[in-house]
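Form 12-C: Joint structure prediction
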Amino acid sequence: MVDTTTLKRTPLYDVHVALGAKIVPFAGFEMPVQYPTGITAEHKAVREKAGLFDVSHMGEFVVRGPQAVDFVNYVTTNDVAALAPGQAQYSTILREDGTIVDDCLVYRVEDRVLMVVNGSNIDKDFAHISRFVKKFNATLEDISDKIALLALQGPDAARILQKLTDTDLSKIKYYEFIIGKVAGVEKVYISRTGYTGEDGFELYFGGEHAVRIWNALTASGEVTPTGLGARDSLRLEMGMALYGNDLDDTTTPLEASLGWLVKMKKGDFVGRDALAKQKERGLERKLVGFTTAERSFPRHGYPVFAAGRPSGEVRSGTMSPTLGIPIGTAYVPPASAAEGAALEIEIRGKRISATVQKMPFYKNGSRL
Amino acid sequence: MANIPNDLQYTEEHEYVRKGKDGNAEIGITDFAQGELGDIVYIELPKVGTKFGKHDVFGTIEAVKAVSELFAPIAGEVVAINDRLDKEPALVNTDPYGAGWMIKVKPSSASEIDGLMKSDAYTKHIGVK
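Section 2 - Result
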């Protein structure tokens, strides 16, 4: 049993309970995994209309000072200097040996940089990057406990949010943000980002305003409250990595098919040398997506076989609600990583065939 | 609140048994069980003619979140299965005691059904869970 007395709650906990959400421990928080609507219907609502996620468990670090950009550039793999104020990027934080401490979003603001990290990794990430901050004229602060994060996702998201803000949302392109007013709340980071493959926004603001913004967004009845269950199936249909499943302390971004987040030419950064060596040596394994023709579906932890040999475990797996077929991810040797390569997954003692498929599995998202 | 009809018998593993006029037993999972499992996406059922003993695994139920085995509430032989569940597994979520029934069994011993929990005992059982 998880000791629930040590779990944190987001400012919207009571709202979730009142809606009849099923609450589970996740990333040290009591989080809604689904509402009475059910995961499949919540998933569909995001693909077809709009869903609202409370993801306030995510962590936020603010970096200030003349060398804020240089510091974040040093502790992440993507090129922060390439961002103009008002732009954001997806990135990874590495150890010296090239393994992934976390994946994150980096927001460049005029006078500071905001890093958004996974809720389960806040303390680990903060301790890790703190080791390097002294080298820079920059300060690092963990503001996770003060910030709420709502993700409004789906093809109707922009139309619905536009009614609650004077900020012209058509001016915010994918992976851009504007700090504006939403439902009367000032200084909301309105970010056109998400984890679903649909158009949508992530809103960061002071936690004390969470109920007000949630209520404003759901008042029209056009928005379906969506839990972590649908968040997982939506992101997996898009082949978006989840830390703890697809990424962990043993994987490198090159292995995880996140090479596009690694900018070797930007200058030195933590993990660079190790990745250069790994590139030279060649990869021993690579994260791939696969599908199966069976009705039983692959789940996290099921054994995987490539060319008859054990090849780790299923990292993520579900029955794709949109496609109606089982989908999953696994690390396999490069020889078995090409599209169409045959794998086997052991499901409750029985080996079934699987086929490597290029991700995203779902290709018709409103944000692609 | 979970619906627990008082004309059915129940097991600790959250199956229900409906005794038919022909003496056969209709078996499914309870409203409480479907609520706990969440959206059901696949149900593997035995073939007609399969025989099993009490507590044997007779099938598998896959929900989005978890997979569970189905345990035979009584010993017997499968005389019918609900074919609709192959295409529409969500019937178990929407109508567990009706269209979401799973199998019909000819009991090895007619008295075995009577030994199962009644609705009040099952209500207590899920209450203390």
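Section 3 - Comments
The interface with chain A takes residues 38-39, 41-42, 44, 60, 62, 64-65, 67, 90, 93 of chain B (CB under 8 Å). The helical segments of chain B are 31-37, 84-87, 91-94, 119-127.
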